[in-house]
Amino acid sequence: MNKFKLYLLALLVLVLSPAKADEGMWLLQLMQEQHSIDMMKKQGLKLNATDLYNPNGVSLKDAVGIFGRGCTGEIISSEGLILTNHHCGYSSIQQHSSVEHDYLTDGFWATSRDKELPTPGLTFTFIERIEDVTDIVNAKIASKEITETESFTGKFLTALAQELYDKSDLKGKKGIVPQALPFYAGNKFYMFYKKTYTDVRMVAAPPSSVGKFGGETDNWMWPRHTGDFSMFRIYADANGEPADYSASNAPLKTKKHLAINIKGLKEGDYAMIMGFPGSTSRYLTVSEVKERMEATNSPRIRIRGVRQDVLKAEMNSSDKIRIQYANKYAGSSNYWKNSIGMNKAIIDNDVLGTKAEQESKFAQFAKEKSNDEYSKVVKLIDETVAKSSPLKYQRTCLTEAFLMGIEYSAPFTTFDTMLKAIENKDKAKVDSLKDNFRKAFERIHNKDYDHEVDRKVAKALFPLYAEMIPADQRPDIYGFIEKEYKGDFNKFVDDMYSNSIMSSKENLEKFLSKPNKKALESDLAARYYRSAYNKFTEINKQLNPLADELELLHKTYVRGLGEMKAPVPSYPDANFTIRLTYGNVKSYSPRDGVHYKYYTTANGILEKENPEDREFVVPAKLKELILKKDFGRYALPNGDMPVCFLTTNDITGGNSGSPVINENGELIGCAFDGNWESLSGDINFNNELQRCINLDIRYVLFIVEKLGNCGHLINEMTIIE
After folding, report:
1. Active site (annotated) includes residue 35
2. What domain range is 507 assigned to?
3. Residue 435 falls in the annotated catalytic set
4. Which CA distances in Å does 524 have to 409, 448, 568?
5. How many domains, in total, are found in the chain?
6. Pairing of the two strands 230-236 and 642-647
7. Where is the signal peptide (predicted)?
8. Catalytic site residue 712?
């Protein structure tokens, strides 16, 4: 039996291990082979494996999908009603908001179907089928059709997906999108057939004072009192198939939806989460963890912090700017604070020590096996990381400051094409390119962009980047600023934001009325963006071969770790594919003398209330309901209103909006966050501290019914009392 088969055997055998029972983002298609279903039943599950995932029939999998581009959502009625997080729906809520209709502040409630709002660009995606294609990939490697390195590339995986799709019975069916991906660091490959619906409409969203209660301050923290939910609906054509928006489309008749259990929960209750965790790095070495801290997290923290200070001041000064930048600020702040918490948790939880211990055990394992490949792999990873770390630091700084931080730019390739047409005296080509310039201008100056706000961001980030990166490693625009502006960043920024072709409609039309070579060659925005892009390309050219080396080294390391752990099964790192994690409702004690119970109530909302702080404003109607204890059937036996609760489930970004499901397959909550003390969890799971923060479904229904006056939505759900 070869090494690869031994590794697979190690993945497929289970030894019960209660100490780590809640760790793992398990693949649905391997639950029976890995016997994880037995452990789940031991912890309280009353369903069978085919109730969770059934390749030949309907299962819970069919009620869960990808919401938008980076979240999870679940179907909670037979008419396509979706529940997800408020922060997942935030960009859509912001898209529909204006000063006149401020749904961010006031909330949105569609009191009838005709009031549900079409949301262009928003999609919902189900997983139709999953296939193991490892043998196909390995055969291509063995026949030298591709190299092992090429098996990781997007180019190969896209071609493979298309090849298999073309041979499948799903070819030509509406909405089907094929995707092939590596797992276990390329030791396994799976093919996913996805079905994407493109007519998704906004149905309900509480005001931000509910959906984002606690804001940046409470983000990643417990205790939590955030009503982090929103609702949307899938519409389809007359045959129930995906179709772009049309007034004739009807709500999708779903083949599976989650029943909702409002009986309540107690500590120790079984809880599982099905969703799409985005990315984890559980198999890193010590050197790679240090690289994450120093080359990615630290520069991100510093640069985003400066940018966010500028944005916050501007947002506080204008409702128009607040609405424009609400989603951008929220997205930036989320992983800014995550990076802070991760670096702290890595130290507090001694993740480096844990990884060093793992490496020591692996070295001993390799020695006992007389496996030279395993004996060398960690050292080779460390040597590669030593080369990549300074480059990754440069790339993070460049990306955070210029490719993400500053929004204003000029499409220099379009400029180059125009310049060539002018030099060739090709008037027809020059005229044909004018529309491209206008489209580029509209992309920059969109409804969520403010030129003066971005100018202030640029004035903050240009000098900050110079502090963080030595002169010989900066884009050449810095040499230009030193030479032409005597190093005066403010003067350069003002000149670029005021006088470049893309600075204003007036400047654009003036240029297009008489396109000329001088204006194109001297344009500061084009010069700046070309410089930043060229530096980014230069760094990537150096990083790409190192990344290829690391891919192959990790394939060896992860295979070896799987063998070392055998017969305990391993799970692959998250890669935004459907996973299941199981655990229990559980409180925790993060440090000496501190104990957190497993749930919060609406009493805490009033305790945190601060009318002077936007993050802790309580809507008047909600306050009245809480004071009167007007919670209806959703209250606890003592009359209090539950808001959030904790479980031991193993989640990460992408799981936002995932359903929390009880032992009978019924919905009890919606996952939305992790806890501060375990933000190193993407790298190393901490069984004692890791908690998933969930919104209690009873609070969702209470808000929909009592605050939103949307009893019709409650009526279309299946509720178990």
Report:
1. no
2. 286-291+353-551
3. no
4. 9, 23, 59
5. 1
6. unpaired
7. 1-21
8. no
